Amino acid sequence: MPRPATGQILERKSKDGRVLRTLRFRSGGRRHTVPLGVVSRAEAECELGFVMADVARGVWRPPQRVDVPVEAVVPTFHEFAETWWTLHEREWRPKTVADYRWKLECHLLPTFGHRRLDELGVADVEQYAASKLAEPARCRPGRSTRRSRSLHRSSKQQRTDLIGRNPARGRGRKVRERPPIRTYLETAGQIAALMNAAHELDEEAREDRKHVQRRAILATLTFAGLRIGELCSLRWSDVDLSTGWLTVGEAKTPAGLRRVKIRGALRPLLSAMRADHQGSDGFVFATRTGRRPSRENIRSRVLLASVERANGNLAKDRLPPLPQKLTPHSLRRTFASILYALGEDPGVVMDEMGHTDPALSLRVYRQSMRRGDDEKQALLTLVERTENRQESRVAVSGAVSRFRESRPR
Question: Which domain holds residue 38?
Answer without folding.
Answer: 7-57
